[in-house]
Amino acid sequence: MPEFTALEWLVLAIAACAVGLSKSGIPAFGPIPTALFAAVLPARASTGAVLGLLLVGDLIAVRMYHAHADWGVLRQLVPSVVVGVLLGVVVLWYADDTAVRRIIGAILVLLVVLRLGLIGRQRRSGSEARPIARGWGHVFGPLGGFTTMIANAAGPVMSLYFVASRLPVQAVLGTAAWFFLVVNAFKVPFSVGLGLMTTESLLLNLVLVPALVVGALVGWRIARRISATWFERIVLVLTFASGVYLLVV
């Protein structure tokens, strides 16, 4: 087990709590653990350490929301996500961390701008917000696979797609729960092969699980009370903030 200062342990505990929040109530919190872990651990090592916690969070989220998933959306997304994950493996092998962060940040900001533009046009025309076409899944799927493999940062990408599809809040959480459980499990062999997930990272995950559980319980309570309108606003704000952060750090 690596040795950390008290402040570093606090940062890691907050990151684990954020994983729980992202999995059980506010998916757009997804990039926050990656950023906090990268502040304590080397960038590549932080990716593997976060992945172990994400898998625990995925299991909790599936237990909470398994009955609410939209399986039609999942069946459409999974094949295209695989393409994105494999592309992410190639980029992780060759690209440096700075270039990858800039790419992901630009993608997140662009997605928010596009979504706000669509909402604005619908309001000006006096029509209600309509779901985006399911064909957009072939765009969001590879983006989600790429960003989750590179930086475990697909939460904002996929949350934006699920919300823009006009799924109810519970359906967003249930669909995201199954989606990320499958995708993160698929990533494990690649992360082990790249030396990102190790025995040390798994021991660290074990220590941080209690903080993750606390975050999951808090997120679950929030998700039961929040309206669909506010849920979308939170997703958009946190997605934009995550994108800007990745562009400037």
Automatic annotation (TrEMBL):
The chain crosses the membrane at residues 77-94, 100-118, 139-163, 169-190, 202-223, 229-248. It holds the Pfam family TauE. It is found in: Cell membrane. The keyword Iron-sulfur does not apply. Keywords: Cell membrane, Membrane, Transmembrane, Transmembrane helix, Transport. It is a multi-pass membrane protein. Belongs to the 4-toluene sulfonate uptake permease (TSUP) (TC 2.A.102) family. This is Probable membrane transporter protein.
